[in-house]
Amino acid sequence: MRASAVKILLISVLLLIHAGCATDGNEEAQQVPEEPALPERIISMSPNLTQIIYALGAEDRLVGVDEYSIYPAGAAELPRIGNYLDPDLEALVVARADIVLVVDTDELMAQMLSGLGLEYENFGNDTIEDILASIERLGELTGREDRASELIENFDETRREIETALDGVPDIRVALVVGRNIGRLQDIYVSGGGNFLGELLEIAGGENVFASEILAWPQVGVEAIVGADPDVIIDSTLSKGASDGEFDALRDDWNDLPSLHAVQNDRIIVPREGWFQIPGAYLDSTLRLIVHWLHPEIFPENVVDPNREWSNPANNNG
User: Fold this and answer.
1) Which helix (DSSP H) or strand (DSSP E) does residue 17 occupy?
2) Read out DSSP for 180-214?
3) What is the phi-psi region of residue 168: left when phi exceeds 0, alpha when psi lies from -120 to 50, beta otherwise?
4) Which residue, 216, 237, 240, 280, is the most exposed by fewest CB within 10 angstroms?
């Protein structure tokens, strides 16, 4: 073989090797990073996050919940991990969760989980925007994005429907009591400004008489209630499981303030629907319930417990 031919062959081989190396390098550079695996074992340390996981149809991933997670009923059967004030550290570790879900106000919980070397993620639950963002993010974490979008759209549609129906209807002045002493009108806590229930009141055609309060859940005295003189008082002090007599007694406490328009017009509402206070998956149902209380002449139908009617969306595709 002539020298020139050998030289050409060597050059060709070198070019092929260089091209191969360049290709390998480009392939490596163009490789798309693998998506992180979705968590298979989840602990929820907040009732609203537990409810959202169920509503997404991802409850089979829950390996533990906080002791206040009772909606839907199936959540009560899951292993309990204490609560945000008194978590069961041993149970947290033994559960071998891929991720722990906490609300973003639980700073001590976050520090504790970090100390244990456990993965966690914070979620907001103060405002409507926070809650919808939590639904969207949990949909991503569980691979249930379509169902999350459906839950969000349910609320948006309900909001539009109610705002249209109430166009031109005067607002009703309302006080929403979230807790007080039972048997006497003391230590009264109400919905103030900057919280989802106050926002829902406004959408439902209510004027929150304590909306100007800086705190989300301020304590007010009887004098403040009398001074505000709301047309409607929603007293949600009692929770699920109270007797009929206890609900009646809670309503009767307000008879000590006969000058109130809400008392005179029999507009003291004592909800038995404990789920409506959960900043979770069913904001649309909570909104419908509140507008029913405030404007029964326009929205006469009561609202059933969405947790009771719950069924796994993943099983409803056929």
Assistant:
1) helix 3-30
2) --TTSS-SEEE--SSSHHHHHHHHTTEEETTTT-S
3) left
4) 240
The whole-model pTM stands at 0.83
Q: Residue ranges per domain, the chain?
A: 42-146, 159-294
The span from the CA of 38 to the CA of 102, in Å, is: 17
DSSP codes of every residue in 78-114? SPB-B-SSSB-HHHHHHTT-SEEEEETT-HHHHHHHH
CATH number of the domain located at residue range(s) 159-294 in this protein: 3.40.50.1980
Q: Which residues pair with 177 in a beta bridge?
A: 190, 235
pLDDT at 210 > cutoff 50:
yes
Closest by Cα among 170, 46, 165, 67 to 109: 46
Topology, domain 42-146: Rossmann fold (3.40.50)
pLDDT tens for 128-148 read: 999 999 999 999 999 999 999
DSSP run (H or E) holding 120: strand 120-123
